[in-house]
Amino acid sequence: MQFWPINGKGIARKTVHNCIACFRQKPTGVDQLMGNLPSERVTPSAPFLNSGVDFCEPFQIKFKNQRKGIFSKVYVAIFVCLATKSIHLEAVTDLTTEAFIAALKRLCARRGRISTLMSDNATNFKGAAAELNRFIKLICNKNETLANYFASEAIQWKFIPPRSPNFGGLWEAGVKSFKHHLYRALVNSKITFEEFETIIIQIEGILNSRPLVPLSDNINEYEVLTPGHFIIGRPISAIPEPAILDISDNRLSRWQYTTKCVQTIWKRWKNDYLNHLQQRNKWQFEKNNVAVGCLVLLKENDLPPCKWAMARILEVIYGTDGKVRVVKLKTATVLTRSISKICILPIENNNVN
């Protein structure tokens, strides 16, 4: 005998939806409403007081300008100010902790101290954070005054979740912009270290001359807001200005004029740039939070979906808005991952909050 089940199409769809084997062949990821910007990005501050850092891939250069000069690798550390998008570039010869600390010292000597530094979980960043903390503890154990000073002045290092570059989109975009200009300047070029350093500093000036917001419709405003305004108080690629050395001092209120210029820059930063940052191009809808105990697939970029490992959510980490975007997973070890790196299996007990 043959039978036709009532609502057979719906039953078949539900069966396929709850099939673990089918889900593993075409898993569905997890996302959440885009969170609010961190306070470091929306609070007026000195350039590079709150920064993010990353390295780009190595480049081949010569350390001696000779016909048979030996080529060596050189890397570029890219520091990005979280508030103003200012960029600072430092060339280093390797990816060791010592080389990065030296680059960090050069940054602080030229741009001022850093309060907050964000990065991924690369070993040189982890090693630098541990080395700085060890040095501060060594000093603080000997002097209470220094301990109180470093409690407020030490660098607060924040690491994004492992394998989650979307949490560091600001400095990832800085790396992309730097490579865009560098590859066009080094087309089949064999250059020395001094020439390479000159080129990257010129690229730094170009990147710090980019408009932060579109040009205003006001015909009286011919100058667009750039990161250079926050670094030196004017555009880095400035047009020629008339000399005012021959004008008497009583005709110039320099302090008031300088103060007004700075206040105007920050007013435009608040009215134009902050509004521009609030635009959300994706993750625009609120989703239910994932729950502890859910069985999930762990995404691996170098494996097909059918071979992704299974894990169980051990702990959820809430953001400032109460949304879960980072979880701790139980596998053979405990891993920390962004929710964009997991897929919740369609099992009846896999509930979300």
Automatic annotation (TrEMBL):
PROSITE patterns: INTEGRASE. SUPFAM superfamilies: Ribonuclease H-like. It holds the Pfam family DUF5641. One of its GO terms (molecular function) is nucleic acid binding. Residues 43-235 form the Integrase catalytic domain. It comes from the Eukaryota. This is Integrase catalytic domain-containing protein. It comes from Trichonephila clavipes (Golden silk orbweaver). The gene is AVEN_142106_1.
